[in-house]
Design brief:
Chain lengths: ~170, ~170
DNA sequence: TATTGTTATACTCTATAACTATA
DNA sequence: TATAGTTATAGAGTATAACAATA
């Protein structure tokens, strides 16, 4: 197999990002949760009582999809819809006690996950990486803590960087 | 009350990686190509003449999916199946001249894409980032230049227990 | 009998749009 | 008439497994 030409930074980021998502998905699958569900839980935990419209807007997903997500987590007893008394069209979404427990567990998983991802780096390098990534995220206008996976992707993902020229082996 | 804890490095990587994929997908959409198609083109360009089985194995995708991808690019006149004379079950997949032209165009798009992604960083920082990411990719066992978006989901390694649900997006 | 490529089929996820209930 | 949430439906993308040709 040809050792490929050094991939660009965009492909590296896409590759590692997808890998990170995949690994995290495997971890939360042990709790019988999907990553979109975890993303919603995180958002609700961070700011309880938001309406479904608000949540959908933050996540960049259609309200109908949010209904499905909320349904699933509601049936699991992890979140709760509370009807707003002033405007009975609105649902305020809250975590249940069980939901808070699950979030604590997820927090632990995430810490382990992070540690495993950057285990090849020493402390200084981890700090550097974190700082560089934070700057990029801010510059690119990414909402803190919100995964773009909610938005519609044209396709699942393979960034390619083609420099052609004879195949270099190694 | 939510802790406004900063997102971990795993979430940052997942976020930026998905963003990178999304942006790149938008760029190649202008060529009426999807990112999986570009990924396959890249692989064929780097090492022409591989069989579909080999390509599928490298990408971690089922052979049947590869047929679909090859079909699309074949109809577009970008790649070619050449039957192996020694073993007539095998197809050797090659780029056409048009395919090579498209790869050159994609190379240009990728360069622009990379530049835009890391525009917040100076030259030294870009070099640092690239080095750190390369080390992580190697440590995590990622195949150079191959996006994990092809794989089906290796869910069991970490959690040990495993009810699995669908994988999530990158 | 085993392997390469193909086709047929079913399933999952998501978006669009129609619908209801409140305002 | 407008908005929040829901339901219904359709489409894209993918995996699984049966199948044909070749070894």
């Amino acid at each position: 197999m040809a050792d490929m030409r050094a991939p660009g930074v965009g492909l590296l980021l896409a590759q590692i990002g997808a890998h990170a998502t995949e690994r995290f998905a495997a971890r939360v699958a042990g709790l019988d949760l999907t990553t979109p569900q975890v993303g919603l839980l995180r958002l609700v935990a961070l700011d309880p009582g938001q309406s479904q419209q608000t949540l959908a807007s933050t996540l960049g997903t259609p309200p109908s999809r949010l209904v499905t997500l909320v349904d699933g987590l509601d049936e699991r007893g992890l979140i709760q819809r509370r009807r707003n008394a002033d405007d009975r069209r609105l649902n305020a979404v809250h975590l249940t006690v069980a939901g808070e427990r699950v979030m604590a567990t997820i927090g632990g998983l995430a810490t382990t996950h992070d540690e495993e991802l950057v285990r090849a780096l020493d402390r200084t390098e981890r700090r550097q990486l974190r700082e560089l990534l934070t700057r990029i995220a801010a510059d690119q206008g990414l909402t803190s803590g919100v995964h773009p996976g909610y938005r519609t992707l044209p396709a699942e993902a393979v960034t390619g960087r083609g420099r052609r020229r004879g195949p270099a082996r190694s």
